[in-house]
Amino acid sequence: MQKFAIGLIPLLVLTACATRKPVVKGEPSRELSTPYTLKSGGFIPPLQRGLRIQHADLWFNFDFEREVLYGTSILTLDSKRKKRTLSVDLDTRFKIEQVWVNDKPVPAGNVKNPDGQVLITPPAAVTFPLKLKMKYYGRPRTPVNAPWDGGVMWQKTASGDEWLATAVQGEGCDLFWPCIDQPTGEPQSLDMHITVPKHLIAASNGALHKVTQQETAHTFHWHSDYPTNTYGIALNIAPYETLSAGFTSQYGNRFPITYYYLPTNDEEKTKAQVLFDELPSMIAFFEKFIGPYPFANDKVGVVQTPHKGMEHQSINAYGNDYAKDEYGFDWLMQHEFAHEWFGNQLTNSNWDHMWLHEGLGTYMQPLYAQYLHGNLAYYAYLNKIRQQITNRYPIVSGQPRAEEEVYDSDKGPGLDIYYKGAWIMHTLRYLIGDEAFFNAVTRTVYGRNDPQPGNFSPVYAATKDFINNVNQQTGQNMNWFFDTYLYQASLPRLDVTRDKTSISFRWQTAASSPFTMPLEVSINGKITTLSMAQPTAIKLKPEDIVIIDPASKILRFEARYEEAKAQDAS
Fold this sequence. Notes:
Keywords: Aminopeptidase, Hydrolase, Metal-binding, Metalloprotease, Protease, Zinc
Cofactor: Zn(2+)
Strand content: 25-35%
Family: Belongs to the peptidase M1 family.
Strand order of the largest sheet: 5-4-8-2-1-11-14-13
Largest sheet: 8 strands, mixed
EC number: 3.4.11.2
Domain Aminopeptidase N-like N-terminal: 55-231
Shape: globular
Number of domains: 3
Number of strands: 28
CATH superfamily of the largest domain: tricorn interacting facor f3 domain
CATH topology of the largest domain: Immunoglobulin-like
Structural class: alpha+beta
């Protein structure tokens, strides 16, 4: 265990370049992270295939003045096959001091990190399970625009105290700890030991196990027995105060809610209390519609951060300035909290299926508005996000993808995984009904139909798992629905032809694939449902008033949205 860095680790200040920060121990770290490090997910390197992190024991301390992170990680690795060389990911900005395998030091020449994939070749081939220990230090990447740009934020509070936060979803866990930077690289259990100056608090994942007091510093030991999302592992350090309460769920179990916040003045304290008071209603909503809170043995945790927000498991980052919208709740807090179910309990097996996190997570905002205020709020919310859909790329490509390939709208679906994903869920719910819809969601999230506290653990899922669950719940083959909405970029079009005596309807898709979406039509206020298994016509009089899809249930191409976007762009 390393103690607090200042005063214990000699630092050498070089002044050869006045524009650079002082380097550490005379060893200059790399100025830029490599493309390998900045990529998260995608194809798994051969040496990491089949490799699992059973347990991660992570130790951190800091030199805040020089923005240096000191880390020691002890990873318990398992694999079904022997390996001659081990591989984990760590940013080349860090200097690796020493590596041990099963407590035996690995010669320095047998440890290489040319591009962010650390290659470790012990003197003899290893069998699993084994313990890989690594001691490292350096200046981690500083994000330009967190949380959309990943790294470690070294900020100051209004009172001038240190304020550190990590947010690494886009670029991955290897920005500050040795990991397998894939969605499937989750440690099955986790310990975090964070040493900070004694006036600061370190808030992290799991449950607080112990605080060890030293002369000038405290070490916070956090522990979780749950598998933990790789990018969901987070450091949050500041002179926090806390708001805490217990929550008894509809399932009868009880767990703590804690908000770590910065009390700059009485007004901020009041705002913090208002946010904290929103959480019980949000928990009750998710438990009613989806299932039990997944991490009850840890906590419902929220921490104030200098960036907007991020779904860090059991310690959600929040920095939305306590903003409520016209729907009466803090939408960002609700969205990030949704990821405890869609992202942390359910984790996509590859970034290509990220819509399972973001589409379902985004749908929870209009659904929560409906839960609080009824149908008007629900449809108003849906209409607001409908205007953001672009349809440039399919939501799912069918190939392993890196994070950037999904979130970058020039390379992939971008924000469509949020907005289009939410609207797909709205249309699906209309089509199959609430019972089948929510049963399919619950089955996908928990891997079972009857989740109860203690009878489930986090699961991996892909798009096909959700489709299979929908097919199972409906007793129908719904592939036509998902083929059109998920695997094609363009929305289905409804061709409408009207003359003096009739009106006819026909669905068209870009790939000319089958699309048999039933269609509601209002004629003079009377609603008729057309099966649309084939083009359909209805007799009319010239004066009849026709409204297509009067309840706005179907996601389809509508010129009015495109015209509004074009007008906004001009």
